[in-house]
Amino acid sequence: MIENFIRRRRVFATLVMVLVAGGLPGCGGSPGAAESSDQPELPALVHQAGKPEMMELAPQNLPGMSFTTIQAVALPGTLETSGQITFDDRKVSTIISRVAGRIEEVRVSQWDYVHRGQPIATLYSPDIMTAEAEYLQSKLMVTKLSAASDDDFAKSMLEASRRKLELLGIEPDQIAKIQAAAPSFVMSAPVSGDVVQNQALRGSAVNPGDVLYSLGTLEDVWITADIYEDDLARVKPGQELQAVTTAYPNEVFHGTIARISPNIDPNTHTIQIRCEVRNRDFKLKPQMLARVTIVVRPGEAVLVPLSALIFETDRYFAYVQVGNDLLERHEVVIGNWDQEGYARIISGLRVGDRVVSSQTIQVNALWHQSHGESS
User: Fold this and answer.
1) 78-88+218-297 architecture in CATH?
2) CA–CA separation, 273 and 79 (whole Å)
3) What is the pLDDT of residues 218-239, one digit of tens each?
4) Of 268 and 365, which is predicted with more confidence?
5) Tell me: the pLDDT tens digits for 291-305?
6) What is the mean pLDDT of residues 180-194?
7) For the packed helices 151-167 and 126-144, what is the interaxial angle rounded to 10 degrees?
8) Strand 240-245 vs strand 253-265: parallel, antiparallel, or unpaired?
9) Which CATH class name applies to 95-216?
10) Is the CB of residue 286 less than 8 Å from the CB of residue 322?
11) Which of 129, 119, 97 is nearest to 205 (CA)?
12) Which top CATH class is 40-74+302-370?
């Protein structure tokens, strides 16, 4: 049906041009008729129910218009991207005050490395003194009533008082050494790591829940990097990778992909991956930039010449030849590509599509004019 419509339209247009050029029978040509024949004819629009709108435009009607065929190029077995180094949040500990009190002494500073069990601060707290007194009293009761029938009750009281001290942050070995109730308590590091945050100030008052320190270990670090959406099928957790930093350009750090984000950025069509990297000698520091190379299965990328793209407002478009001098306007999402003059197709075009690659701006102007719009 469409082909018959186009054939009839071309025949009609040819007859009109012959009549205008040669003059109607019995009538002489006039300057006005000659001038009207110079008015350009806009391309016809072809509408199909449920299908994209098409514009009829033959190459001979727009000198210089040419086409190129969309092709795929082979991708190597590696995928390169850039990322940023961060702490492994599974190995970051926040030390909080579990009681109300006052900091009497600060024993470590920011960026210090501390070992598990190392004293980090001395805290004055009447709450701890009260809990220690209850513990000592329960311990004395167990000793006095060891042969009595209610010995089980005394033991349960002792266990409850011991549990209360543990909840206040006192370690079991510290509890075993308590000989007398004292208002001062030495806090110890629960894990080994670097002091990445220090909010403990000598003489400052603290309340339950106040953050005093944050400790992080650099034995293993994360590198968070971005990959394009169409590369997602090529990566999976457990794949090996190599990382190089500007600080150590001649040293390669090895790791694996640990996590893949469940969300895709709708603006860049990228997705984040989290890589776990072994940090020998603690050389990798948070916020460092790294170049990441991931070993992946070979794939392919679909490329389009930049000359085939039209940018309007915030979107790209291309004109695809669909046969019989008909063009369809496709919205295209692109990504970066390392070859000058080309872009990588994320969506909108397929391998084998023939797209207008020269006179693209003129084709776009004709499209808008045919719709009665200004280009």
Assistant:
1) Beta Barrel (2.40)
2) 12
3) 889 999 999 988 788 889 999 9
4) 365
5) 999 988 777 889 999
6) 87
7) 160
8) antiparallel
9) mainly beta
10) no
11) 97
12) mainly beta
